[in-house]
Amino acid sequence: MGLVLIGLYAFEVFTPGIAHYFATYSARFSQELVLGFFFLSETLLGLIPPDLFIVWAKQFVSPYVMVSVLAVLSYLAGLVAYYLGVKLIGFKTLREYIHVKFKKQFEMLRSWGGFIIVIAALLPLPFSTMCLGAGMLKYSFKTLALLGVFRIVRFFAYAAVLYQVV
Fold this sequence. Notes:
- The chain has 10 helices and no strands.
- The chain is mainly α.
- The chain has one domain (18-165).
- The longest helix has 26 residues, at 63-88.
């Protein structure tokens, strides 16, 4: 783990950095394709940090309009992940595996519910993963949809900070 962190640090220090490469390569694709890729990434466990897309949005004439689009897409991706969780838990073997494998996480979500949703929405935690788990637990969709709005707040707060730094 330490070697990976040292490697990432060296990459950021001795190269233009991940944000630069992301911006360079994303410029080759249409805006719609990048947004579609973002939505897919956010729905499927949030594997690519949304911060890279927030930095990408800075290139536009009205970057906060694009941040709004990204924020809404991320929020909607969480709702889709919830729905996927509801559907996936219907498969008996998958349900048994998941309830054993993620027992502690499910217990935490059951105990802390709304607080965990807000934390996942605001912090660099995989929001869609939490939404998927909430769907599997049949957590209240109405509560998730309401508290998930904090995800939009996160995008604007991160944009304000990142645009000062980058």
